[in-house]
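Weekly structure sync - notes
Attendees: PM, LS, DV (DV joined late)
Agenda: review two folding runs queued last week.

Item 1: First target. Sequence and structure tokens pasted below for the record.
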Amino acid sequence: MMNMKKTFGFLLTLISIFIFSQTKSVKKLPVKTTSKTAAKKAAASKPNPDLVRINEDVPVLIPQKKDDLFGYINQKGKFIIQPEYHIAVFFAEDCNLLSSPNEKVRKFGTKEYATVEKDMISYRINQAGKKVYQYKTSDLGKCKSEYKQQQYQAYVSNGFYGIIEPAKFVNAADYRDYQIYPQYQYLHILEGDDVSNPMIVASHNDRFGVIDINNKIIIPFEYSNIKRNFSWKLGKMFEVTKDGKSYYYIDSKNKAY
């Protein structure tokens, strides 16, 4: 009887040790897993030192041409994505991909990617320069964004360009009806998000500059041409040239990149 009690007590002790060891083991597992997960998150969130942002008003990566091919530089002028493309635009949304019938490719329509073209083939690339998607006609959806009607428009009188607001313009003979009285060789209102305060490419004395809707000079008249494209809408930048051949981007403070 005594031996049975001793045996039973010994078994209880073994069971207790086993349960205790298992409990300790189970408690340790979440700690180790959490530590690894936190380390991975910390590594993933570490910023890229090459993607510096000196000017908050312009993109981190800017298209740049070298030897007839386009790549992307950072705000310090360093090539982050080497020139290999015939066409390269700003990192921006592509509404055709955002509304694609193929749900798997919609993510490539976000502003985290840019559209480039090489050998007549169009791609979307990420900020590391990796081609992540090749365009297919079947993937393109219809843009859902609404067209914004321009509030102002150019007006020509006696061979000179000015700006009017059609909703308020009544009498062409009354200078007070003009937003900007005709005085320029040429004017073009750039498309942008703010139709009440657009940027306007202007020509004066055979040189190009940029003015605002109040006729304030934003970019001085020192360029032989300024492209009338989407660079202002997509990147808050202007594509300019002084010799008519080499184009480059400037910001709204006339700083070249």
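Item 2: Second target, run right after the first with the same settings.
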Amino acid sequence: MAYNLLKGKKGIIFGALDEKSIAWRTALRCREEGAELVLSNAPVALRMGEINKLATAVEAPVIGADVTNMDDLKKLFEESMKHFGGGIDFVLHSIGMSLNMRKNRHYTAIDYGFNQKTMDISAISLHRLLRTAWDMDALNEWCSVIALTYIAAQRVFPDYNEMADAKTLLEGITRNFGYHYALKKKVRVNTVSQSPTRTTAGSGVKGFDGFITYAEKMSPLGNATGDQCADYCVTLFSDLTRMVTMQNLFHDGGFSFTGVTEAVIHQMEK
């Protein structure tokens, strides 16, 4: 059901790869709620994914951008503002990549060159994005920026590897840049800490199937789906949440504040 929560709003969605992507599901919901969109991803992801299919569904142009390249980001905002005929009302940062995980390197033996690239792509890219928008005055007043994160930023999940560090940095950038952008133009910046979700990227984490089952048992409401995360993002992009900024918002069925559940106890007693 649509409520026209984003009618007249214009936004950029980063990171949609295929139909499993939270960014993909969010783009569909934003369009359903009346938003106009621009889709963006890295050039290599544009070749590997199916983003043109999404572009047709949401009637949006696709503008490739390497988020570690300031010139690419400047071009993206320039072309987006030209397309919209003005500034941006919301942005979704759904970007993450770990070279050490891809290379099966244990956390205690990471390649530091790979690690720098992971941090640049998965976390510092948010700072680059916000700084570019800041310098260009590309975001409208009360614009809402969301970056997707995970509870591994606060708790140890051994197989999440260096991405845990990247998410910690991402959340720090959210708070610090969020403070300055709120003062400058009432722009709000938040992270959404989502349940483990069967995306193409998430499924590549070692032991993912076992963990998603565990998380389901540990969450009083169960794991939040990608579509439910998209619904939550829509509320944060809307005017109903104007006073929410600099927050890490858990969207995980209660997992983050549950010590143990009866289902887990019963499983352990078997």
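Discussion on item 2: The chain has one domain: 10-269.
Action: LS to circulate a short write-up before next sync.
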